[in-house]
Write a structure and sequence with these properties.
Length: 226
C-alpha cells in the first residue's frame, strides 16, 4: 500500500538556463499591471499630476511628519486666472492643453520631494515638505513667473496665461486640521485674485519670526538662508 503524506505543493519551476519562462513572464506582467493600476488610482489622467485623493493622504502624512520632526510643511494653492475665458474662446481641448502645459512647468521647477496635485478644474495644490515660508514664497514666485513667461502655442499663435497663488506653512506648534489649513491657504489664493491676479499672497513674514534670540542654524531654517 502506498501511503500519501500530503499533497505535492511544489510550485512549477523553469529549467535552469532557459531564457524565457512563462511563469516569470506572467508574474512580471502582473506586477506591471498592479503598478499601472496604483498609478491610475493616485494620478490625474489629464495632467499626470497626483489627484485630490492622493493630495488628502499626503497632506495628512506631512502634517504628522511636521509634528514629529519640527520641519514645516508648506502648501501652495494655485488657480489659473480667467481660465473660463480660455475655454469659451478657444475650446476645451485648448483648455486641456493649457492645463497640461502648466503641469509640466510644475514638474520642471519643483523638487522631487515636492507633491504637485490637481485639486480640481484649473486649481492645483502643491505640498512642499520641510519648507519654511520664505522658501515656499520663492518657489511660488518662480512658478508664477515661469507660467507668465511661457505661452501655449495655439494655431501658431502664443496664448499667454497667468496664475494666482496662496502660500502658507504648517509648523510643529500648529494645531488646526488639514481642512482648516487648506481653507487658510485657499483664502490667501482668493486674496491674490482680489488684489489683481497673477500674484502670490502669503502671511506676513514678520509674524512667522520666533521671539527671542535666534541662532544661525535657526535663521537658515526659518528664512531660507543657505
Amino acid at each position: 500500500m502506498v501511503h500519501m503524506h500530503g499533497r505535492d505543493t511544489k510550485k512549477p519551476q523553469c529549467p535552469v538556463g532557459e531564457r524565457r519562462c512563462e511563469h516569470i513572464d506572467a508574474l512580471n506582467a502582473l506586477r506591471r499591471e498592479l503598478e499601472e493600476l496604483a498609478e491610475l488610482v493616485l494620478t490625474d489622467p489629464l495632467t499626470r499630476l497626483f489627484n485630490y485623493r492622493h493630495f488628502s493622504q499626503a497632506l495628512e502624512q506631512e502634517r504628522e511628519r511636521t509634528h514629529r520632526n519640527g520641519q514645516p510643511t508648506a502648501l501652495i494653492m494655485l488657480d489659473l486666472d480667467r481660465f473660463k475665458e480660455v475655454n469659451d474662446v478657444w475650446g476645451h481641448e485648448v483648455g486641456n492643453q493649457v492645463l497640461r502645459h502648466v503641469a509640466e512647468q510644475m514638474l520642471t521647477l519643483l523638487r522631487k520631494i515636492d507633491i504637485p496635485c490637481r485639486y480640481g478644474g484649473e486649481e492645483f495644490a502643491l505640498i512642499l515638505p520641510g519648507t519654511p515660508l520664505p522658501r515656499a514664497i520663492n518657489a511660488a514666485e518662480r512658478l508664477r513667473a515661469a507660467i507668465e513667461a511661457s505661452p501655449v502655442m495655439v494655431e501658431g499663435k502664443p496664448l499667454f496665461v497667468t496664475a494666482s497663488m496662496g502660500v502658507s506653512v504648517f509648523q510643529r506648534n500648529s494645531h488646526f486640521s488639514a481642512e482648516a489649513f487648506v481653507k487658510q491657504v485657499d483664502c490667501l489664493l482668493y486674496e491674490a485674485k482680489a488684489r489683481g491676479r497673477n500674484r502670490v499672497a502669503h502671511p506676513d513674514l514678520e509674524s512667522m519670526k520666533p521671539k527671542g534670540q535666534v541662532g544661525i542654524e535657526e535663521k537658515a531654517a526659518l528664512y531660507g538662508v543657505d
